[in-house]
Amino acid sequence: NIKMVNYLIAGPTPSPSAGELAELVRAKVAGAQIDFKPDPALQAILPLWPLDDSNARQEWGWAPHYYNQERIVDDFLRELELHPKRYV
């Protein structure tokens, strides 16, 4: 049933910001130091890229695994524990 070459896939709606994810991590990891500097040019065009995953859903039954930010952070922290050298 696959007809497309590339697929855009979405995640939780609304998509969490980097700041929201950082705050969730800080709430779960005492002393976590998270720094980032948003790129204003990229931030300006992000709303122009709507993610429509309807083709992936129709053609191969894709569905998002994550439905909220809390689950995203929990899974990432678990991954970090299992493979700390990947994220140095």
Shape: globular
Count of alpha and pi helical runs: 4
Helix content: 40-55%
Taking the alpha carbons of the first and last residues, their distance comes to: 40 Å
Sheet/helix structural class: mainly alpha
- Contiguous low-pLDDT stretches (5 residues minimum) are none
- How many strand elements? 0
Beta-strand residue percentage: under 5%
Averaged pLDDT: 86
Order of helices and strands: HHHH
Q: From the alpha-carbon coordinates, what is the Rg to the nearest angstrom?
A: 16 Å
The main sheet comes to: none
Structure write-up:
The protein has 88 residues and is mostly helical. It is 43% helix and 0% strand. The protein is built from four helices and no strands. It has helices at 18-28, 40-45, 54-60, 69-82. Helix 1 (18-28) crosses helix 4 (69-82). The longest helix has 14 residues, at 69-82.
Write the layout of secondary structure elements.
Layout: H1 18-28, H2 40-45, H3 54-60, H4 69-82
Features:
globular; about 90 residues
